[in-house]
User: Fold this.
Amino acid sequence: MRRIRCVIFVFLFAAMAPVFAKKEPALPAPAGVQKQLSLVRVNVTGQPYDYFRPWQKKAPFSKRALGAVLPQGRVLVTADLVANENYVELERAESGEKIAAKVEMVDYEANLALLEPVEKKFLDGLSPLELALDTVVGDRLSAWQLEPTGALVVTEGLVTTVQMMHYPMDVGQFLTYRMSIAMQYRENSYTVPLVKNNKLAGLLLRYDSRSQLLDAIPAPVITHFLKDVQTEHYRGFPSVGFSFFPTRDPQLRSFAGETGKPAGVYVTSVEPNMPAAKAGLQVGDIVTAIGNNEIDQTGNYVDPLYGKIEFTNLITSHTYAGDALALKIQRDGKPMQLNVTLDHRSAQDYVVPPYNLDQPPAYYVLGGLIFQELSRQYLKEWGGNWLREAPQRFVYLDHFQSELFPEGRHRIVILSQVLPANNTIGYEDFAYLTVTKVAIWLKPCNILSTDSSKSKPRKTRNRSSWKRLKWRWKLPPSRSVTASLRSSGWNKGGDNLRSAKLPQLAFLFD
Assistant:
């Protein structure tokens, strides 16, 4: 009986084996898909700048990714891939042929970059990908990857949500697809195209292998980027320049004086010199509609494709810099309409720039003191947890820069560190301070000078004091510590100056 039971068990297990077998998430693509392959490998070498030692760069890096071939002989990748690049190379998957490429356009806020080979015939024979603009929740997208042999591997995933999210540079929010997908890591997984019916539906933005959730840059954002590139001057994605809060609380609606049905969002702040401020939007207004799209109490509107989604999608995906947009508002219970001319806010328009890539940091070394411009790129040197690890005063200045410096278009100068030298004895522990004032003090002294008309030197009297040393940076108001040093290398005199008492530089820090 035991032998018969054993035979029956083995037979049942063999019959049920296909049911219990693990499903392989990624399989080689059929021959029909292989022929339509529109991918190239992208090899990038680069070297980021070291903001702790601004006079040098960090160790070189290399990245490999997949680029989507587009019409007009261009290749689409993410901006993260080419940040601080030194050399970009395209490689054909089927033949291994390589060629140098140049970055035609990069938008770090939208995390998109467009590459172009030095010889456009390099992409001959590859069918360019069209864009799939009709992706909705419930659709299945295919992630295209390549094996080292060049074989295409396809992994399918399900689109679970479509919402507004922050991209890596954390400047505004953009439309994002979120997918559930069991994707395997491969050597060229830095940029992965997502395809729907052999059309490009998006690019990989980030992937969490634990939760198996993938965020993707969607085709509407890519389309906006490509259309703007075709113009004479790329202007970037537009912004309005105000913050808001939902009006679900009836007490808030009563405080704002809202009349009629509950709807709209409460304006909590308005960025100076931005389109909303120029149009007359004020704190306390309730924005009830943008164009013909009504906004509910949570800040959503009904999109014909995605359903309810945050109204910022109307600004970033559907409009361009220079377009006019009608804002319908309530002010003290009275309906009004404001016509806003949209514009893009570049990184240079911030007091603390949100990113500073492909160019060296601004710094100045004087008497052993290292001065730098405060930027978010500097704060990110503390790692992924920089919001907690970086000096909290600098994080505060970055987060509340619009409220602290409404005039804008200036920079915050910091004393980042002090180099050991004879001039800096006693100031070794000074670091992470904001410079509020710089002045030069000349004590009255006798100066020996030589007159061109006379052969003998003569004495002149210098009675100047507290002459301001003009910096190219705007310094915030002074509140606290004063530090001074004697600069042994300072010489403000001309060719006729033979000897003089050295001036004393005074730095006021906060």
User: Anything to note?
Assistant: Confidence is low (pLDDT under 50) at residues 1-36, 443-503.
